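ERR on first pass: missing label on line 2. Operator R.T. fixed the label and resubmitted. Corrected input:
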Amino acid sequence: MPIEATLQPTRESALVDQNGRVLGPRALNTRRRLLDSTSQLLRSSGFRELSVVDVAKSAGTSPATFYQYFRDINDAIYELAREAMASHEPTIEIIDQTWVGEAGLVTARKIIEAFVDLWERYGHVLRARDQLAAEGHERFVALRFDALRPILFHLSDQITGAQESRDVPAEIHPITAAAAMTAILERLVGAYPYLEQLGATRDHLVETCSLILYRTVTGRNAS
Amino acid sequence: MPIEATLQPTRESALVDQNGRVLGPRALNTRRRLLDSTSQLLRSSGFRELSVVDVAKSAGTSPATFYQYFRDINDAIYELAREAMASHEPTIEIIDQTWVGEAGLVTARKIIEAFVDLWERYGHVLRARDQLAAEGHERFVALRFDALRPILFHLSDQITGAQESRDVPAEIHPITAAAAMTAILERLVGAYPYLEQLGATRDHLVETCSLILYRTVTGRNAS
DNA sequence: TGTACATCAGTGAACGCGCGTTCACTGATGTAC
DNA sequence: TGTACATCAGTGAACGCGCGTTCACTGATGTAC
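pass 2 clean. output:
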C-alpha cells in the first residue's frame, strides 16, 4: 500500500537537455521562455490547440530548439505542473499547525486561501495535468498523486484522531473524507468564476469552505 | 441574477442534419453510430487525440458523412454530454425527498450513488465537457451549468432552511456550500480509481460522502 | 405487380494546410596561451 | 591584449504525414400510378 514518491529531486543546477548536456545560463533562459510560452498559450488557447510550433514561435525561437529541451509538448506541461506543485509546498506545512478550537479554523482558512491562490495562478496548468492523468498518462497520474499525498495523509490523520475522541463518527473513512476535502479545494476553487454569477464572493468561498473543512476534520462546529 | 436555461428541448423526432433536413430512420442510425464511436474513442484514446477521421472510420462510414450530422468534433461531444445529462435527470428528483432524520441520510446516499453511477458511465464525456467549459467554450459552460443548477439550488434551499433553525451556522454561504458538495460529487467520484489504491472501496466512498453531504445540508450529525 | 421517378443517405477522392520532427549547418560564447 | 580553438546554443529548411473539409457523384429507399 505505501506508494513511493515518483518525483526525483530536481535541482535547477542539474538541468540537462535531451542529449544529457548540462544547460548553461543562455540555454536556461531559452528553456524558461519556452515554458513561459507554453503556460501562456495553454491559458489563452486551450489544451487541445497547444502545439510545439506555436510555443516555439511565441517564445521567439524555433521548433528545433524546443526539441532540444523537451521530448514533446506534454513534457513541457509536465515541467510546468512540477513548478506549480513546488510553489505549493509551503501549504503542506500549514496543515501541521493546530486544529484545536478557534486556531483550527484559522488553519483551515489558510489552507483554503493557499488553494485559491494556487488555482488562480496555475489553474490552466493543473487542469491540463488532471486531464492527462485522467487519460491514464502515468507520469501525470504520479505527479498529481505526489501533489496530493501529503495533504491527504495529514488530513486523514487528523480525522482519525478526531474519531478516537468520538468527535467524528466511525463510519467516516478518513482517507476518503480527506480526499473529499481536496476535491472541494481543487474543483470548486477551479470553477470559482461561475460561482460569482450566483452571488458568491471570494470571501464566501474561503469562509464556507473553511467551515466545511474544519468541521470535517475535527468533527466540531466552529465555536 | 437568474440565469436562464440554455438547453432548448430537443425531441428525438426533431433531429435535423446540417442542412436542416429531418433525419429518417437510416440517418438516425448512422448518427447514433457516429456518436457511439466518438464516445468510445474519447474513452480509449483521450480528448486530445480525438479526430473526425478516426470517428468516421470507427463508425464504419466516411468523414463526409460525419459532417452531415455535426459541425465539428466538439459538436458531437456536446451531443454526448447532453445525453449524459438527460440520463441524470432522475437524480434531481431524489433531492426533493426528505432530509429529516434517518431518511435524510438515505436521500444523501441515493444522490451519491447516482453520481457514482453517472461518472462511471459518462466520466470520459463529462471530463471533456468540463475541459471545454474551463477553456471558455460558451455552449459547454452553459451545458455544465444547466446540469448543475437544479441540484445546486435544491441543496442551497435545504441549507438555507437549516440555517433558519440554527442547525447550520450563519457564516455558511448556502450556494457555495452546495457547490462544494457538487465538487465532491463530480471530482472525487471522477478520480475514484486512485482512491482504491489507498484502501477505499466504493462503499467507503458512498458512505463517507453521504455523511458529509448529510451533515453539510442539515447541519446535524447522522444519529 | 411493375415501372418510373423523387427523395434520402452516403461516399470517393481530392485539396490544402499545418503539424511534428530532424539534420546539417551557423552563430555565440568561453578559454588557453 | 589578441588570436585560435573548443564548446555551447540555436536554426533554416525540408520531409512526410494525417487531418479537416468539401463537392460532385453514386447508391438506397420510398411512392405514385
